[in-house]
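[worker-b] picked up task from shared queue
[worker-b] task type: protein-ligand structure
[worker-b] ligand name resolved to N6-methyladenosine-5'-monophosphate; SMILES cross-checked against name lookup, match
[worker-b] sequence length check passed
[worker-b] input payload:
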Amino acid sequence: MEWWVSMPKIELHAHLNGSIRDSTLLELARVLGEKGAIVFSDVEHVIMKNDRSLGEVFKLFDLIHILTTDHKTVTRITKEVVEDFASENVVYLELRTTPKKNDSIGMSKQSYMEAVIEGLRAVTAVDIDFVPHKINTQDSLNSIAMNDACDGTRRKKTYVRLLLSIDRRETTEAAIETVKLALEMRGVGVVGIDLSGNPDVGEWNTFLPALKFAQEQGLYITLHCGEVPNRQEVQPMLDFLPQRIGHAIFFEEEEWRQLKTSKIPVEICLTSNIKTESISSIDIHHFGLSSTSILSI
Ligand SMILES: CNc1ncnc2c1ncn2[C@@H]1O[C@H](COP(=O)(O)O)[C@@H](O)[C@H]1O
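[worker-b] inference finished, payload out:
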């Protein structure tokens, strides 16, 4: 096995519907094509395209959401995504997804999330720990088991925790519903809230009441921040003091300074930023720069 596959890893920025196998997407598209709901040949190349602009990415998500609408498929993709991360030796996975409501098929945000939990329970390839428990002796034993899993001597175990995403297209009320659901689901591995979605759509202020409520209730918060240039948002997002932010591409010097002072960790999304051409080359990605200019500010 390649060293980088066998190395134990932590994945903190995975969108469920952004992590589906191409083979599964093609299979789902074929089935919908046979039903006449879509034209398979029109979507095949969209699914298989390698690099796409940020705008194209969100069009692809709209297509993916058409393919994965029902509860059964949500359960299936959750199982597969977790198994795929486990097969790459991810030992701690924070999976985020936007709870969806679709009256036409009897889906509520809650039933969507129940389908996700069903998917976690369906994983067979590895042991999945997604129900939080208090730190005690048993926990120390579990972490030993997790470490041992890396040398192949024990059955592998992956710790999974969930973040419920708010999509920037949603309303304040829908976002509050998501936060309430997250609070109800704390017992089944939900640890926080993510604000994501097309950064060119909507305003983050719309979600402030929901995010403040989540913060007051002790949920962890991560915000997609600075994925596109938006001076009106970056600073107030940092002032909000989320536990983490995602991307942090278009930051001015002063914003880097504030980020550092506030000690807010960044979920670096190297592959995504290069593939979507948000950053033209890896040589100038802020991850590489962090040891020089950024950290020296
Ligand atoms: C490329 N950078 C990105 N920036 C912002 N939001 C993103 C994203 N990639 C994914 N999402 C968010 O995650 C959803 C898909 O997963 P779920 O349906 O929630 O599982 C997308 O619809 C978008 O809201």
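[worker-b] attaching auto-annotations
[worker-b] Residues 71-87 form the longest helix (17 residues).
[worker-b] releasing lock
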